[in-house]
Amino acid sequence: MAETVSGYAIQWGQPAVIAGLFEERFARGAFDRSLREYPDVVALWGHDATRPLGRVANGTLTLRSDNVGLYYSLTPNPESPLGKEALVTVGDQLVNEVSVGFASEQEEWDDSGDLPRRLITQARLFEISLVLWGAYGKATSAELLVREHNRTAATRRKAETAMRKRGIPLS
Asked: Rounded mean pLDDT of 9-15?
């Protein structure tokens, strides 16, 4: 079974302060049109186009817009050095955030507060990235991977214990 990194890249309505200049949020469904018209989004390591981890076109990345936000599921190739690095660092919780590369197409501004607020109602999505620090804070990116890793490790420990009890040597 392939290891998968999944979670929400964006949660609708969740605020993020961008460079201390303004607060940004995404309206529900902000990427719906983009996902229909330009579905071949890529997953990158740290927004670096020379370090691809997956893409919709080859089935290693799936994206969906739901009631919560923009959900992704990424299955990097564990046999490639970059895929292995991504799985290990996310599994170890060293990298546990996600960011998005996008272009705002429709937005609303509110300048009534101390900090201007931008609500993006429609955007073109180019890529998602595994990153150290995402504008929207911690993502649930490692949740599925860690759970699968822990289940696999627990199963291995049980098997090894049973083998030891039966006097079967471990190699």
From this structure: 93
pLDDT of residue 167: 77
pLDDT of residue 141: 44
* Strand (E) or helix (H) holding 123: strand 117-131
Whole-structure pTM value: 0.79
Residue type for position 121: T
Look at the block and give the residue holding tokens 């076109």. Answer: 57
Alpha carbon distance 26, 31 (integer Å): 9
Strand partners, 106: 122
> Which positions ≥6 away from 73 have C-beta within 8 Å?
4, 5, 6, 61, 62, 144
State the pairing for strand pair 16-18/22-26. antiparallel
Percent of the chain with pLDDT strictly greater than 70:
81
- Asked whether the CA dihedral 159, 165, 169, 171 is positive or negative, the reply is positive
Q: Could you give the CA distance from residue 90 to residue 130 in angstroms, rounded to a whole number?
A: 8
